[in-house]
Records
---
Amino acid sequence: MHTDFEIEDRGLQYVGSSRIEGPLVVVEKVLDAGYDEIVEIIDPTGHSRLGRVLDVSETQAVVQVLEGTTGLSNKAMRTRFLGESFRLPVSHEMLGRVFDGLGRPADGGPPALCADRNDVNGMPINPYARRYPREFIQTGLSAIDGMNALVRGQKLPIFSGNGLPHDRVSAQIVRQARLLEEEVQFSIVFAAMGVKHDVAEFFIRNFRDSGALARAVMFFSLADAPSVERLLTPRVALTLAEHLAFDCGQHVLVLLTDMTNYCESLREVGTARGEIPGRKGYPGYLYSDLASIYERAGRIEGSPGSITQMAILTMPADDISHPVPDLTGYITEGQVVLDRDLFQRGVYPPIAGLPSLSRLMKDGVGEGYTREDHPILASQLFACYAYVKRVRGLADVIGEEELSTLDKQYLRFGEAFETRFLNQGEYENRSIEETLELGWEVLSTLPRDELHRVSDSLLNKYYRESEEGMVCVPAGGASG
Amino acid sequence: MTTSEKTVKPVVTRISGPIVTAVGMHEAQMYEVVQVGDLGLVGEVVRLIGDRATIQVYEDTTMVKPGAPVLRTGAPLSVWLGPGLIGNIYDGIQRPLPGIQARSGAWIRRGEKVDSLDKERLWTFEPDARVGETVSAGQAIGHVVETPLVNHLVMTPPDIEGILRSIVGKGEYGLLDTLAVVETSAGPREVTMLQRWPVREPRPILERLRITEPLITGQRIIDTFFPIGKGGAAAIPGGFGTGKTITQHQLAKWSDADIIVFIGCGERGNEMTEVLREFPELKDPRSGRPLMERTILIANTSNMPVAAREVSIYTGITLAEYYRDMGLSVAVFADSTSRWAEALRELAARLEEMPAEEGFPASLPTRLAQFYERGGAVTTLAGKQASVSIVGAVSPPGGDFSEPVTQHTRRFIRCFWALDTELANARHYPSIHWLHSYSEYVEDVGHWWKKEAPNWTELRTQALTILQKEERLQQIVKLVGPDVLPDSQRLILFIAEIMKDGFLAQSAFDENDMYCTPEKQVALLRTMLALHDRGHELIQKGVPLYRIRSLECVPKILRAKAAFGNKELEKMAELDKMVNEEMDALAKEYIKEADLICTPISK
Ligand SMILES: Nc1ncnc2c1ncn2[C@@H]1O[C@H](COP(=O)(O)OP(=O)(O)OP(=O)(O)O)[C@@H](O)[C@H]1O
Ligand SMILES: [Mg+2]
């Protein structure tokens, strides 16, 4: 065994290691090392990298090297245990700056002046201390505001696929997000994990053009950075977000992209440790691990601030049952799903009508929040659009001409819904009233009797009797 | 015992996440509670080899080091049982979350120790037993009014019986005050309001009973089609966003149980907050009192330590058993048992146990069985009839029911409410699929329902048959369109649509619709089946389906669930009248036509 130690003024320093494998280094005969303690590793060239302790016993410590093990050698490496878990210096002066994936300045500027250094793992929010999120955020996108409304303090991810415009959609949301009553601007915390430089550039440009750059903090662990570093990046970003929200009282919008890359890094470490793999090779604790990230959103009683979280993930092979989107969906408060078919038909934003869901919508819309008809309009649009999908299936088999008059009307409604309601410009910012009016407009292409979910009084108020809508339809297989 | 063993103080030797190894533990017992490190993190011994113990720690172990002290408590993990549980919210190891907040603010700091019940608070105790009386184990010696809805019986613990030597008079007492002394065969024992009970051990009962009474939930698809009995066990599996939590919330709100225990096990923080915010404002439809006055919450959310998630289920069920022992009917909701099973898996992996299916420990089925077996209709030690019903949510990966947790759970429950992603996507809620779900309690509770409607069984069967027929017809429709079907079959499609929209779908957020009394359930179903039966007659007589579809009563039937309140059954009667009148008119019209055609031939 090569391990030995020498006393230095900055604590114990160990020379050598017994094993290096993937992102892991095993250091023998360590004294006084703690679980999850942060470790400084000095490679043979004298450069230092950070690591953390994954497992520690009387005889050895298993250290995960966050910045890659390339160039390390069992003999020449030195390690020092830094006596605490990973902490991020936090300050609101970090707004407007760019940092690397571990929170070190990456814009050439000096480290920010910070009074607090917070543990990046955070602590669980006491459910008793949470305040239930209720304030409707108008994103200006009808597909979201009308059907899957976002509220302040919600965690609502975007499930996307390779090549789909999730970056454009999320940039548009960041650009347009506002509250109906209050004039507050969101601070933006942006964490990029394993994405390419041009994606980072895209967001920087977008934030600059919309004047948001001064209110944005960015953490980049890009595709060329060591993959294990990504495991800390979202935690680093959320640690700052928590400081801004709950210590400084700001409303923070956190963008995390791309969580699939994060999960791959987690898988890599799990494999290196020889853990029993779960589905698709991801570790069995993927759910708990993701929850420790996603649950760091919301509102707290007595604090004016909030964290609204939007994680972006690409579904491998567009498969929503893949472990990453699947487990994410089990934790977040809904999901916005992008649809390749809509995208190929030129609909922007290509937000899938049916699989998208906002679970907190029910508490943030309707009378006193947006407008009385909002919940029922959304529900009726969903129901009718679901029927459109069935009719389209049928039309594929028997041909459109063979459809009943009513079913043909449904097809026309589906068309209007996609091209008029969902579809909008990348710089088109619709008010919630515009969205709702548009909703009634497309719904009114259907006969009034088909709208079972809407009460008569609301129909009287909002349904638009048109030539088309009045057509009385006889027989048909099924109703909406 | 050698001297060297004696001198070794218990210390930590290894830390791997929530699993810690310690030496110097030769006297430790299995499942004993220990405190680890300087912060005194709570843990439980889960394996003993020689003087080495493996400890599962219920709090985050960051910066715990080898050499850290371990303190033994000598007792297994137990909960406190007594007045003050109702309306409270606890973490997985029964630490009250309000108490933790008072000490460490909005975040749960490690090492906080707060009593599960308030020892200072005084309760008005009224004795119900007299000196000299023989008291049996579990017998009530008095009571306190815990909340306006809960008359909390102060019982002798299951291991105390004998002659009542003394008992205090009516007055204000604290949790630890001696209320009575019982002369047992092993000497005098004091009885207080507080009992402690190890969570992994079921509380004793006299005997199990057959289930005869339904747990009325106010949810139409459940009560009418897939009922659960009081003391029964049900599983509610479904992919993400299909409605497990909302359905369980609905049941927790409206079920006619006396006590509700809701275990948020590895799920979202906001969902617990929502219950905390809503339940005090919602009124129990039977008593008119706030629902929180009968509810206990256990919240071990997904970001809280995974070991405490494992134990939260047992904590919850033990509290339930305690109220059952008072002769009450208790309903336990666990959201989600899959997260609990995953905690088992994670801990087993850290313990380097041999995995069975999909990484789950081989003991998974046994553990599931043990949990569900703690439910049931029983005679308590004190001879009362009581029950614990269990509803467990299951979150199968990818929504695929063939995975181990769903499959094994099926073996231990008798009621299966299968949530369907397609229905949820179409916003048909609750998305319980009428063809994939089942209940084995139908026969058991049929007797109760006959009081409501003598032909309940027939109504239910007829309705299910229509839904089944519809499914088959839809296969044909998918291939060739509906036009090839004769009107008599298209009537089935039509009625099935009405039943789906007007009966099976039930909004959790609509004032009138969220809770539906058994009377209204029967009334709605009757009307829809009448529409079917009379419609069928008319079609036989040559009336085309589109005439029936366009009757004015049809949209009224579809909206009746939300348009009429539970107390407005007379409006349902009016609706029935309207159906009949419109049908009669239609019949007349066609019989006339038929007569016209027939006349020349017959005369
Ligand atoms: N009975 C209902 N009435 C109206 N809406 C419902 C109903 N049931 C479910 N929903 C809708 O479905 C959404 C998802 O439901 P829920 O949160 O219960 O899903 P879940 O199965 O618990 O998901 P997860 O496994 O991710 O926790 C709700 O936010 C609500 O919008
Ligand atoms: Mg849920």
---
Amino acid sequence: MRDFAQLFASLDETNKTNAKINVLKDYFISVPAEDKIHTLALFTGRKPKRQINATLVKTWAIELANIPQWLFEESYQVVGDLGETIALLLPDGESTHGKSLAEFIREMNDLNTLTENEKKIWLIDSWTSMTRQERFVFNKILTGSFRVGVSQSLIVKALSEISGLNPAVITHRIMGNWDPATFSFHDLLQEEDGSDDASRPYPFCLAYAIQETSDKSKSAEEIAQDLGDTIEWQAEWKWDGIRAQVIHRKGEIFIWTRGEELATEKFPELHDFILSLPDGTVLDGEAICFAENKPLPFNVLQTRIGRKNLSKKILAESPMAFIAYDCLEFAGDDIRSMPFKHRRSVLEKLHQINPHQDTFQLSAIVQFDTWQELFDLRLQSRENHAEGFMLKKLDSIYQTGRKRGDWWKWKVDPLSVDAVMIYAQKGHGRRADLYTDYTFAVWDGDKLVPFAKAYSGLTDKEIKQVDYFVKRNTLEKFGPVRTVKPELVFEIGFEGINRSTRHKSGIALRFPRILRWRQDKKIEEADTLETLRAML
Amino acid sequence: MGKPLLQFNDCGIYCAAGNFYIDPWKPVDDAVITHAHSDHARWGNKRYLAHHLSREVLKYRLGTDIQLQTVEYGERIQKNGVTISFHPAGHIIGSAQVRVEHKGEVWVVSGDYKLEDDGLSTPFEPVKCHTFISECTFGMPVYKWKDPSLVHQDINDWWRLNASEGRATVIAGYSLGKAQRIMHHLDLSIGNIFLHGVIANTHEALERNGIKLPAATRITPEVSKDEFKTGIIICPPSALGSPWIKRFQPFAFGYCSGWMALRGAKRRMAADRGFVLSDHADWDGLIKAIDATGCECVCLTHGYTASFSRYLSERGYNAHEAHTYYGGDEATEEDELPVEVLNEQGGVIGGTSNESEEVL
Ligand SMILES: [Zn+2]
Ligand SMILES: [Zn+2]
């Protein structure tokens, strides 16, 4: 555990990519094999199951820290992270346990056989035998909230430098349904792929955005300059669903989302079509709610995803389909290095012979001869229930991760309104001690009604200024939330807008974010609820 | 019961009996200054009273023409029958707690303070009083400082490593206090010290005041870039992200502040290293200092006033929050920062003064 805590501290002590890679390499070379694979599991989001609930952990920490409960809660508000709060509040300790990371994880996994009192004794013994730094990573693992400040690509790079394997190969091998108790680090870095994991997906190929805000809009000429001849490109609508990979291998089916979540059970309607694909097929596409030949608004899908149980009612209200746009594996062969137009023709054939045409949709190709034509068509995205276009180079391979050049997303301008900040709340993680999460309101007659919460979009300097304002203009405090004097106006961008009965304003926004701080505007100049309703 | 000896009004901490203010935030006739940080010593007062060791820095910051009287720790000054005296606060060089006595009643205004001896400031001394107006910048139990000598050792180790790899070491801390504290503990066998202009100005002012500080070079375009490779550059936090800092490339950046105790705060500064080093008392320090005054009543300024007063109330103190315009943030103590924030924020200061005339 000491090595692992030190690794975490060392990664924290530098912002430089190369230094981080060196730290990772040193660690992976020096620790026992068992710790290596557990570390990799943790670093790729494969957390051990939580065996003690957070309330108990909190209660025991409060006891050991010897402070009132409210003070613990407020400390948590300041720090923004439970594991860190506990590590800071417990009395200082020395490292006396002598256990490895793997041993601690084994003990955590075995906790379900213990009584509550035995769990408590184990936890307090563990805490008192650790330093603050060890306690912090231990708490993060224990509470199932372990996250690491290095990207997966850095880990892949370090492993690639140790083993000499291509980074794309490693990225692929560490995906899928493996368990650190059975997957061996040795197999992972062997020349030949030793895995027989039928569920293993491919790393998603990700697109770069052509433009992100309304004030940076690009003209057709600029697009032409950047992308060249239209003949080399294919355009498809950009669908507003959940990016997913569907797999049929060895008689089994799997659905993976872009967040590497295994979601097979969440989409039962898709099972038939996937089973009808020839064995050894992997498709990339969008899982989306779909009825009467068109996609349903995203909030229908969102409601469905939020439900634990898929009731008959939910299934009827939000039927699923899969809009396929790529084929990554065919007849058991990885075809990602074939040109896109070839993969597309494979996909079209698979689609043609599939009996489930209702749930297996093919992403339509948008015909165009000039960029201007496509530019004009893009303005009809919303009528087509799309967010804009995906542009893909016809001769491109299926890249691993986000690579510039072959895939572009060209979204329609975001919708926006000017709104007044009325509540503020402290952020988490890197902004734990600043007011960074804001609630915004628009005018309804002479009242300001809240309609959206947003936090991203300001520069660090602006955040400090807003935080300064909040701390000096608080009207009321409700727990962590402060009501502030309505004075600051912001331009809020969003991707979509829907009617909502749950919100006071009667509307719900999709992906609201701060586009900019309108220091030039007075609150009287903010938009009205009517303006928002007109966008429905 | 008559009026309280000190009260918070629109302009600052006011003593009606003596007709003077302590650390006023709006211009007044008579200002008693605990220390020279910009949130405590503001521009525009008619007369200033401060400790000897604040003299040159106050003149540098507020103008050489200010009407300033300085005193020694423990010296007693009379104002309309009220006795004023200064007592070491251990926060920065020349920082003081201000003791006010009238008709047998004693109040102490802490200004900012810490209990550890930093080797430069006159160490903190508790002062018995009935009412203590205390800062609580770090008044949360998550803030517990480790032994500062270990932090200075970490800084030297980090500097040594950077120097051995041919990389400049840039370290940020606010210019009055932190900067001198950092350099006082540097291992000069590693390399030379270079100062950002703002820090060099403060450095020179302190030297005019008779303070002995390590030799350091002001950074000017004439200093050769090669010299930075093994050197340590001390700058204010605001220099980060400015074009000024580019000249040191390649460099490693460290930030010294009590806020670095939280991972989130460190990330926000985008620092390679965060050194937890504060000139304010930590949680245990605050409680120890308050207990040592033997006071019944505590008024809290700076930072976590609401939580800390609740905690003290539960421990039997008569504790209140006081609304002031003092920092509450080590970063805003950096001389140029508050001005910048205030200008851009326009009417924020004094705009919502619903806390004026708050009686303690
Ligand atoms: Zn200060
Ligand atoms: Zn202060």
